[in-house]
Every structure is written in C-alpha cells, then in structure tokens.
Amino acid sequence: MGNTLESYRAAIGTFYSVTHKLIFHGKPQINFNLRYNIYCAINIFCLLILASFVNNDQFKFYRLILLLICMDVHSNPGPDSNETHSLDIIHLNTRSIRNKLDYLSNVVDSFQIACFSETHLDADINSNNLTLEGFDEPLRKDRTRNGGGIMIYISSLLQYNRRHDLESPQIETIWVEIKLKDRNLLLCCLYRSDFTASQSVFITDIQNSIEIALDYTPHVILTGDINIDFINLTNSQLRDCLSIFNLRNVLNEPTRVNANSATLIDPVIVSDVCTVLDSGTLSVDEFISDHKATYVSLQINITISMSYYREVWNYKNVDTERLNQLIGTHDWDSVMNENCSVDEACVNFTDIFLKFCKECIPCRKVLIRQNDKPWFNSELRFNLRI
What we know:
There is one protein chain. By secondary structure, the protein is α+β, with helices and mostly antiparallel strands. 29% of the residues lie in helices and 24% in strands. Strands 3-4-2-1-14-13 form a 6-stranded mixed beta sheet, with no helix packed on it. The chain has a 6-stranded mixed beta sheet with strand order 5-6-7-8-12-9. The chain is elongated, with a radius of gyration of 29 Å. It starts with a helix and ends with a helix.
C-alpha cells in the first residue's frame, strides 16, 4: 500500500499551509468506529489531511502516534542524490545512425556515455532530431551522409566539456573531459577507415593526442572503430604505441564477425591506472550493424545531483471556500467503510482528495535542480539570462 509523491506533497502542503484557513461547517460525515489497527495501517498522508478538517481528539491522537513512529516525515520529499560506483561506456559502429535511435535508446539506457562511429551525418541534419532521453545533445564530428562520422552522447547528470585542442584534423576523433569529484577523465571516440588515413598517419596523430592527454590526467580511455585487428599479431605498430603510454586494450574477443573472418577492430583502450570492473561485447540486430557493441565499466565513485520535474502546489491561491464545500459535502462513509479493505480505502481516499485539490489549488510543473540554493528562484534565474 503506498501513494505517489504527488499525493504526499498535496497532503503535507495542505496540512501545513492551509489548515488555518479550512473551517469545516457542520458535523463531519466520517465513521470513526473503525478499529485502531485500521487507522495505523492507513497511509500517514491520509491521516494528516483528514486531521485538517476533523475535530476528533481520538483521530488526532492516532495521527500523533504514527508521526512519532515514523520520525522522518519530510515536508517536501524528492529524489536523493544518486551515488554510483561505476562509469559505464558503450560504443557501436552504427552504419548510419538515422532511423535507428529508437532501437539504440534501449541499448544505451544503462550507460552514462554512448559513443557511435560511422554515423553518416552532415551539417544539414539538426541535433534536435537526434536526441536520446537522459542524454544531452550529442557531440558530433560529421563527414558526409555516405560515410564516416562519430558522435558521443553523455548523460545529462555528468559534468563535462569537449576538448577540441586534442582533436586532429587528419583523423576522426572527439575528445571529452569528464569532470568527477576526485579526478578528471579524458575520453576519446575515434574512427579510422583505410580510405581516409593510413595506419601510420593514424597512429602518429593519435599518439600526439594521447601524449598531451596523459600530461593532463592519467585517466584516459579510447573507444571506437579503427579497422586495425588486435587479433592479428602482425599489427605491432599500434601495440607498441599503447605500450609506450601504459595503455591496454581490455577486449579479447572479435567485434566484427562474418562468414569469412572474425576481427577485433573496435577496441576499448584504457590507461593502466583505470580499474576495470567489466568489459565485453554485446550483440545487436543485423539491420543495426555488422559490428558488436563494446562496453567498459570503470570503478569510480560518482555523486550525481539529479534534476527532476516536480508538480508544485500554489497554496497561497487556494480556493478554501470551494475546498471546504467539496470536503464537507462528500459522503466519506463510502470511502472508509467496513466492507472494503484498508488498501481500497486508501486508494479511494487518495483519488477523491487529489481530485478536490486539483480543482481548488493551482499547480504547475517546475524543474528542481539539487545544487540550487533555496533562495535561487526562477525570477533570479531569468534575470541572470537577460
């Protein structure tokens, strides 16, 4: 048996803000012969609201007992800051990302960062048409609609900035600095095709970027499709480059498999100081890609200040006369009677009470930012923008 936060806020707000305005006219039509254990079972929110218009000492006594038992009733509840112990990153070669976002949204919903290569986009395609729920507008480096291109989606709960200074004009890379509580992490999404850059050009350019990145932070991650097979031991040039900088590929299984070959061309490369909790590949439908998705989970403590929308009740403009009338004329015996269960009584009461509140109390949805100060309201935010 439970109620939504919406129900709870309506209850608490009415009890604290409207009690002094509500004047119940006439004898309340509620049967108070129910046994004590029924009162104790019904949700506290119901008790608080009924107490605002019922002059019954026994009822108020039960309400106080329940409040003492509870000890942690909050006047304006909301989501707590969410602390996670891993940073989860996924990559996939999409072979054109257009018209595949619905599928991909289900693939990436358990990751904080999603990297895609071969997006096949150009400047005529607006990022507003490429949004994924829970992620900010994607960071892009486009080529044409016929090939190439990379992009990164980052959770709106993370702090980050793009590092253009690490990106080379010769190869397709996006570098992003992820700002964590105790460290900064540099992430690179990359794509290399034999038609656009030779192995030697690619390795030389990426080596320069890695060297600068490691001077800034030891926590470096690279992921993407580079068309260099890590299973083929003759490809030693890239391995030697990674070894110089104490970087390692954490995958050991093919990422692209067909009837003729099995190659590991989508590596996940991390610096040795990064603690890897898990890594591997995920199969996707053939119409999405002929590559497997790759992922890595890094051990790291992240405290996320979650923003969320809340329905706010404007108690200053409540129509108390109308609310009194609705409460006073309703047949409450039909809500709480001996023929229905406690759960049914609670649901019935909640539905009816919220219906009355919505008729009499103006409400609107507002965005709550956990890091905002109590005095930082929408008016101050608006003035800062002008």
